[in-house]
Design a protein that fits this description.
alpha/beta, 2 domains, 5-stranded mixed β-sheet, 6 helices, 47% helix
Amino acid sequence: MTDSAIAFYEEWLEHEKLPNFPKAHIVLLRPTMSLMLVFEKDAALLKKALPDFTNTTHIFLPVNDNTNAMDAEGGSHWSLLLVSKIDGVAFHYDSMIPSNDGPARKVKETLQIVLEKPLRFVPMGDSPQQENSSDCGVYVCLLMKHLLLNRLLKADSKERVSMSMGHKDINAKKGRREMLELVESFRKEGERRRSWVSCFLPCLR
């Protein structure tokens, strides 16, 4: 799964799901932002490029094992870093443990400089494991959706939320199909709107 596919899924969660929870202060960082946290060490520059995290409680970051800053589509494996700013913890979910441990720790180290807050790195040993070499991006998206919608956004403000994904079954084939259907629905909606504009544009001239 490519950077743009993961970014699209984050856009969908951000625009279709998060607005239903106006009191939530959760940020979904795009893959390009996570890549920047790996290679850029200038905190002042990062603060200008990244969102304002002042009131943020949690940050989701897709992490890639790309080692070339000049290749935006480089790397071969994705994992998910969920930072609880309020607890000072960075939870790392890797579907091929411990493939992305190094890159995730680099992201954590840079992010704690930006946040001006120490973060404890916690590798989630019970992360669901993929069965092939191509589902890591799907796992990142599905884990992000589950942790966001079924854990963080459903929890009471005083309730301690479990970040464990033990016993969570990930159906990558079904998830990939749902994502393709989501993309197709947006494509059809785009075509419908273009058709509507084409029909009524002459009336406006």
